[in-house]
């Protein structure tokens, strides 16, 4: 796979496309797509519901196949291309706001919601199961699904149990890993759950007994790379936008993870405003939060945010706000390192 780095460009990348075909669902800006490409895979297409995100995806990735529609419709299309039935990997990042610790969690479960222009209303917490339905139909060798850390907390754990049950019915061994981007060469503390499902005929010879009743494919996903602090990627002598005066009253309360906003969250931690500290990785980038450099009260540049998300510096955001695209996407470097482990420990064998 070579030495991957957070500072890179699309036009200079060497995408070998020699490790098999990938299809990406809930593709957003193509963060995971770029990770697979960096790891040597041929990402042949995508499924996305947001027309603006699809436009950005096509501009940057030029997929062979693109399906702009809800996954509930896509999974039942009668004439899917034959390529999709010969995949090494089916990839997906089902919308996760229902489980995010920054959202309403249980209050929103089971409710239809509409977030962006052009999207149909959907019950977000069941989209993962539509994705598994698609896997059951296509039968790729591996299924990779990324989601928020909040899926592992509290009552949301029942969804994890259900996810395992549905992958079992689809013919896969499933396991999950809670990973932190800051330990994987990403200049950002971004904790995400990665589900790795291995088709049973592929994994049957790689099973390891965990206890008297459980066996699964052995995969090592322990990462412990040195942290990359914001000070290492901070641009010098650049013109920056000043922090809005409306945030001034929160300045002393803010730290690298957020501020207390007593009005909107009852005194709970709310990360809409965060400080970028030189001596630690950036906090998780989201589409709507605001980052300011600690000592200057000035906003981060698009280049700094792209580096922290390991996006290529020549990525074309078209008319969308860069931070929105970045916050909605998977850091390419996280995906590349996850799938490199999967390749070397499973597919290569």
Describe this structure as you would to a colleague.
The protein is of the alpha/beta class and 349 residues long. The chain folds into two domains: 10-225 and 327-347, 3-Layer(aba) Sandwich (Rossmann fold); 230-320, no CATH class. It is built from ten helices and 16 strands. The chain has helices at residues 31-38, 51-61, 71-74, 127-138, 157-170, 200-203, 262-265, 302-308, 322-327, 332-347; strands spanning 21-25, 42-48, 65-68, 89-92, 112-113, 122-123, 142-148, 172-180, 191-199, 207-209, 215-217, 259-260, 269-270, 273-276, 290-293, 298-299. The strands form five sheets. A seven-stranded mixed β-sheet has the order 3-2-1-4-7-9-8, sandwiched between helices. It has a three-stranded mixed β-sheet with strand order 14-15-16, with no helix packed on it. The protein has a two-stranded antiparallel ribbon with strand order 5-6. It is globular and about 55 Å long. Mean pLDDT is 87; it is low at 98-113 and 262-267.
